[in-house]
Specification:
Blueprint: E1 4-5, E2 11-12, E3 17-18, E4 24-25, E5 30-31, E6 37-38, H1 48-70, H2 81-90, H3 92-126, H4 128-142, H5 146-157, H6 163-185, H7 190-198, H8 203-239, H9 247-256, H10 260-291
Antiparallel strand pairs: 1-2, 3-4, 5-6
Length: about 290
């Protein structure tokens, strides 16, 4: 007989034998632990996720330098990265203070909008009539023009108050968190709920053991999306009035006064805030996803 089945599913006498852990022995391709391939054409490593965006960023800066400093083909409003770096070094303390104000407004808006979204999503998941009443409201909030509502809120809460900017960030954060949390709360299977009910579990125990772990990855995804929206909305709110501080106000002021390099330095500060929010929420999402039941 040409093929004999060895214990544990390995094959002897054939061209391919499966070794423990999913690796193959005697074949041309062997799978190493962690999903990498040995002897194959491609080996995927986690460091690629870091190197790839850094490489793209360096390439963009190099192209920027080529266009501005070497070819001199850029418009006047686009300064050299060297000039922007000089402004950051010269005014780094002031830029840092404005970044703190903008980041605080975005964080408070994200927190308020997420808490309201969590509360309303819980009500909507518990009762279909409430879901029907909230659906038009959420749809209306989703299409609210931030640029139009920002001056109204700034006027409503006063030119010296930051709450108008926080409210704009909260409005922008509400929808993605609400939609994702509501979807997550509805992912539990009826058979699992029936099993817990038959075991005598209370509603609170069912929520803690089943509903919450199932909905957490969806909550983290909503927070990751909402974090970027909160930063953008806070910047836009600062651009359209309110107190004379923050990244958005500085960008508008220096762009109008012809100090393009300093305006772009503040743009870099806004980008840094967005990256911090994205990285923190992405890390939280990865941690929760790893610990959640598969």
């Amino acid at each position: 007989m040409t093929l004999r089945h060895a214990p544990k599913g390995a094959t002897q006498g054939g061209a391919l034998r499966h070794a423990p852990g999913g690796a193959t022995q005697g074949g041309a391709l062997r799978h190493a632990p962690g999903g990498a391939t040995q002897g194959g054409a491609q080996v995927l490593s986690s460091w690629v996720r870091f190197v790839a965006p850094v490489t793209v960023g360096v390439a963009i800066v190099a192209l920027w330098l080529l266009v501005v400093d070497v070819l001199h083909a850029a418009p006047r409003a686009l300064p050299s990265p060297v000039a922007i770096g000089g402004e950051i070094a010269l005014h780094g303390d002031i830029i840092g203070e404005d970044m703190l104000i903008t980041g605080t407004n975005a964080a408070l808006g994200l927190l308020i909008g997420s808490l309201v979204a969590l509360l309303l999503a819980g009500f909507a998941a518990a009762a279909r009539p409430i879901d029907g009443m909230l659906a038009p409201l959420v749809a209306a909030i989703a299409v609210v023009p931030i640029v139009a509502v920002t001056p109204i809120l700034n006027t409503m809460f006063g030119a010296s108050s930051q709450f108008g900017r926080v409210a704009v960030a909260a409005i922008a954060s509400f929808v993605p968190v609400f939609v994702n949390v509501l979807r997550g709360l509805r992912q539990t299977r009826p058979v699992h709920r029936d099993l817990l009910r038959a075991s005598g579990a209370t509603g609170l125990q069912t929520f803690r053991v089943l509903t919450l772990p199932t909905a957490l990855p969806y909550l983290m995804t909503g927070l990751r999306i909402a974090a970027s929206l909160a930063v953008i909305s806070a910047l836009v709110a600062e651009y359209f009035g309110g107190p004379s501080d923050g990244i958005g106000t500085a960008i508008a002021t220096y762009a109008k006064s012809g100090r393009a390099a300093l305006a772009w330095a503040y743009v870099a500060g806004g980008i840094a805030i967005g990256l911090v929010f994205f990285l923190v929420t992405s890390l939280l999402e990865r941690l929760v996803t790893r610990r959640s039941p598969g």
